[in-house]
UniProtKB/TrEMBL annotation:
Protein name according to UniProt: DUF218 domain-containing protein
DUF218 domain mapped to chain residues: 219-367
Biological source species: Enterococcus moraviensis ATCC BAA-383
Gene Ontology cellular-component annotations: plasma membrane
Gene3D superfamilies membership: HUPs
Coiled coil ranges: none
Pfam families: DUF218
């Protein structure tokens, strides 16, 4: 019976995986990858529950409860960092559960998945940090060649240099430092581990937030501005934001015959000849968007002001605050922009425009630094607790050695 059910599930999954792209071709939004992932997850969950019921046990309820907890918090408010932590807790408990289930069933599919996971984890343990450092140096060179030598473009290089120095000092510290001093040095790796966990949670929720599927009932699409070339020309990075808004504008127009207004948001910088929103409007006009469907917000200087001032324009245009709105920005900036929308009391989620791969590591690091600074008090307290704990251990070790 078990083999028959496995074959049936495999056939059902393969049929669905083949049909999914065909089905999405008939939709206005033809993106099929998100639905393909959902289909695989659904089939796998059904299969795991079947294996569990064959054993007359219900341990699958533990990871299921964590998944439901994540979904509850996520759909209640998507723009919260704790959602990344909850999802990663679900992954850790879920992987532990699958390992436990594998021991009990010796299921071939679970064995294959465990083998792949084991190889990946082994590689991460053996060469993970060294591979990361090599990648960061490579990425830093590419970014500097293509984007220039500004401080914002040097983050991957600075991180690579810092990690290299840490590895060298960590290698020799145990040989040249007394034990109590090595404990003091432990403040640094523990702080690195802490910020690595925070970064991983941030990256997780940033990726999940990319899967927003807004309904075609929007009244406004806010396009968040960025700097202009020579103070007057829309750069490719900003152009992709506008293109993403235009793509949604056309899709909703086709689906409902009721296009949203595109609200270009961005003021005039000190080194710019015109407001960013005016240049963005001109760009959209050249792409064939009717002028009556374009609004401009020309006073904002940062993302928070983008959201606040755009909200005022939308309320005035709509005649109230019960409108539907989304915003577009580059995918790496999407989650932090969502946080600013929440701070502005704007009920709007975002859709992200694709960014060149080489630019993403540096961009996500920049976003992470900004997120950390938004909650710097919390991080300072935790790092302070780490430091105090290690100082106490080092002090105890010092007096213990002195005594004996």
């Amino acid at each position: 019976m078990g083999n028959y059910f496995s074959i049936i599930i495999a056939m059902v999954y393969l049929i669905g995986a083949f049909v999914m792209p065909k089905w999405r071709q008939h939709k206005v939004n033809q993106d099929w990858k998100f639905f393909e992932l959902l289909w695989f997850s659904l089939c796998f969950i059904v299969y795991v529950i079947y294996l569990e019921t064959q054993l007359h046990s219900y341990y699958f309820l533990i990871p299921s409860a964590l998944l439901l907890l994540f979904l509850f918090y996520y759909f209640k408010e998507k723009r919260r960092l704790i959602n990344g932590l909850l999802f990663n807790l679900f992954l850790v408990i879920g992987m532990t559960y699958l390992g436990f289930l594998l021991v009990r069933t010796t299921n071939p599919l679970l064995m294959v998945m465990a083998g792949i996971t084991g190889v990946v984890l082994l590689l991460l343990i053996l060469i993970g940090l060294y591979a990361l450092i090599a990648f960061l140096y490579w990425n830093a060179i590419v970014v500097m060649r293509k984007e220039g030598h500004s401080l914002a473009n040097l983050l991957t290089l600075l991180l690579a240099i810092g990690l290299t120095a840490f590895l060298i000092f960590n290698h020799y510290s145990t040989r040249i430092l007394p034990e109590w001093a090595s404990l003091l040095f432990g403040i640094l790796p523990l702080s690195i581990i802490y910020f690595s966990i925070v970064f991983y949670n941030f990256l997780t929720i940033s990726v999940i937030y990319q899967f927003n599927q807004p309904k075609y009932n929007q009244d406004f699409i806010i396009v968040l501005g960025s700097g202009l070339i020579d103070g007057k020309t829309v750069p490719p990075l900003l152009g992709r934001r506008i293109e993403k808004a235009i793509q949604f504008y056309k899709a909703q127009s086709k689906a409902t015959l009721n296009p949203p207004k595109i609200l270009m948001s961005g003021g005039k910088g000190d080194d710019e000849h015109i407001a960013e929103s005016i240049a963005m409007k001109n760009y959209a006009l050249e792409k064939g968007i009717p002028e009556e469907d374009i609004l401009v917000e020309t006073n904002s200087k940062n993302t928070l002001e983008n959201m606040k001032f755009s909200k005022e324009i939308m309320e005035k245009t709509f005649g109230g605050n019960d409108f539907h709105a989304i915003f577009t920005t580059n995918n790496f900036h999407l989650f932090r922009a969502g946080i600013f929308a929440k701070m502005a009391n704007l009920n709007a989620d975002g859709i992200g425009a694709k960014t060149a791969f080489y630019f993403l590591p540096n961009a996500f690091l920049r976003e992470f630094v900004a997120i950390v600074m938004m909650h710097k008090r919390r991080h300072l307290i935790i790092c302070g607790l780490i430091a105090v704990t290690m100082i106490l251990f080092a002090t105890a070790q010092f007096f213990l050695v002195s005594r004996y």
